[in-house]
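pinging the channel bc i need a second pair of eyes. not urgent but kinda urgent?? the chain im working w is below, pasted from the shared doc
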Amino acid sequence: MRVQIVDPAAYTPPYDHALSGAIARAGAEAELVTAHFPYGPVPREQGYAVNELFYRRSSGAGASAARRRRLLRAAEHLPGMLRHRRHARGADVVHYQWLPIPEIDLRLLAGVHPRLFTMHWRFPDPGSRIAGTLRRLLARMDAVVAHSEHGKGRLSADYGVDPGRIEVIPHGAFDYLTRQPDERPLPDELAAVEGPVVLAFGLVRHYKGTDLLLEAFSRVEGAELWVVGMPRMPTEPLRALAAG
């Protein structure tokens, strides 16, 4: 069986590679179809192919400026999706991880069945315009993956997905982070910490509830919380919470 795992914009490369490796170990012929991840190396599993078919110019090292990269990606998106439609003809299963422009992408899905979608992104307000787009997108899928029973319930109740088409697969742990081949020593002030450390890493966005995490952690004694990631929101309120 030939399975394509599709993340056009390389939004979740650690998850993509872990899933591709697991599918390969299960005996399928797996291929990750994605873009080059421009922010650093991503640890890979074994036994599957990687095809950087999307955003070939904007993901290059020369597109370092964020505005230029966004403009290039906007121009490259449609050609990339059309390339993937042709490329997907060789697959038996297509498993979408992300679709960056759902209003357009739901019209450009591969004609392969079964096709799946994993609901990584946050649930929009059920009455919003993007929720209507999401309903149409999910209706085009043969199965939808949720990371929790709560997510399954929301998909069914708010977005009309038949519970029989929803599979709950927990996110899992990225245990490879504990054994990086090119590890660098921690800065002295962090290496000196002797107590337990809780690490919250990834893009810092409003919906992730970092403010709630900081408020809750203020009641924890004998441990430290490290928030590490690229901020996509003002950080001054979070720094104030951390200092308080």
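so The CA atoms of residues 205 and 233 lie 6 Å apart. and Residues 185-243 form one domain. — does that match what u expected or am i reading it wrong
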